[in-house]
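The authors assume throughout that readers already know how a fold can be written as discrete tokens. In essence, backbone conformation is discretised, so a fold becomes a row of integers matching the chain in length. A single example would do more here than another paragraph of explanation. For illustration, here is how one protein appears when written out as sequence plus structure tokens:

…
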Amino acid sequence: MSISLKNPEQIEKMRVAGRLASQVLDMVGAHIKPGVSTDELDRICHRFITEEQQAIPAPLNYKGFPRSICTSVNNVVCHGIPGPKVLKDGDIINVDITVIKDGFHGDTSRMFHVGDTGVLAHRLVDVTYQAMKLGIEMVKPGAYLGDIGKAIQKFVEAERYSVVREYCGHGIGERFHEDPQVLHYFDPSRGRGEELLPGMTFTIEPMVNSGQRQVRLLPDGWTVVTKDRSLSAQWEHTVAVTDSGYEIMTISSADAKL
């Protein structure tokens, strides 16, 4: 698989899909509170995507994934499967949304606080957001993929957290996962990696642990958790390389800090 450069028409379709994905997160935030199950959040999002947006929830049945969204709570790093788990006061949760509209994908995730969360949880969530932001700010023509991972790793480790290495960002467009891989750390064996060119579209989605970086996969074949049971956080945007820098495809009025 090679890196596909999108033309203006394709970029516009990705803007639409990205905007829809961000609107799902805007909508579901009001439902994230103590006492709600992750399964109920999935049902709410599925109805909104299929009925209100007339779009397709990309995760559903993707390589066998059984739900329309991913819900990763506390020590779950990514790919949490919605189910009977009931959120409680003090939890943190990542909701990961990918929609397909007119054949193109929009992919984004956001952290939410459930009720009153502690200082440590707030700090982890905020540092992870800043890590994503720093990674996005590295995007411009002539820069390299390795610059993104280097900036994220340097910042996160200076804050005494760790970056998950087994999972990474990815190219996106007509396919859910395209080339290139977008590492959130610097891999000396890859060097600076591929040069960024206008028309490239990919996700930046650092996963940051409050403890050690090691993770393990649960028997369901999807859910990834921290090996030491420490908290984990993740933020994600889909970005496009423009002639002069970057465009965030999944930004919304409710997440306009970037």
About this structure: DSSP finds four helices and 15 strands in the chain. The radius of gyration is 17 Å. Residues 69 and 97 are 6 Å apart (CA to CA). The helical segments are 8-28, 38-52, 119-137, 145-158.
